[in-house]
Design brief:
single chain, 172 residues, mainly alpha, globular
Length: 172
């Protein structure tokens, strides 16, 4: 009689990844409350998909979470309301500076929404602090090609930004 033991500790995995996943999604959707909901949904999907438990669980979870965030962003539902709710008062920004910053975040979200999915995923996850190795694992890429793919994604972002909004402010 062979006893099967599920070595995947979902509770520990949840505690180890939930906050970071929520932050990644929040950068995409612009609303921390909605990001927490989507992070919980992504973890629920992981729990319901036992074939990805194990070493590939982290990559699968980040990829799923980013895609859920992008889907939320692309859908446009409630986006304006959530942007207004998620913008915490800035420490010492003038109202004009706060408005300009909110406008720029909205523009970045619009550009991300029209980029190819993999490019948007790369930019979001890299901006969220994932290393090249973590990006390769999360997106199923060859680690040696991550730098090149990020460079291409950045070029595509710049091109789309200029196409939608003209030249960037402050020489950026």
């Amino acid at each position: 009689m062979e006893i099967q033991v599920d070595s995947f500790d979902f509770e520990a995995f949840f505690h180890a990844h939930y906050e970071r996943i929520a932050r990644v999604i929040a950068r995409v959707v612009g609303d921390h409350g909605r990001a927490e909901d989507l992070a919980a949904e992504a973890l629920w999907k992981l729990w319901r998909t036992p074939q990805v438990h194990g070493e590939s669980a982290g990559g699968w979870l980040y990829r799923t979470a980013v895609r859920m965030g992008l889907n939320e962003l692309r859908s446009g539902r409630r986006r304006l309301r959530y942007e207004a709710l998620s913008d915490a008062p800035a420490n010492c920004l003038t109202p004009e500076e706060a408005h300009a910053a909110a406008e720029e975040r909205g523009q970045v979200r619009q550009v991300l929404a029209v980029l190819r999915e993999r490019q948007a995923e790369l930019l979001i996850l890299r901006a969220s602090g994932l290393s090249y190795e973590e990006l390769a694992t999360a997106l199923g890429l060859n680690p040696a090609s991550v730098g090149t793919l990020i460079g291409r994604a950045q070029q595509a972002f710049r091109k789309e930004y200029v196409k939608l909004y003209g030249t960037r402010r402050n020489g950026r």
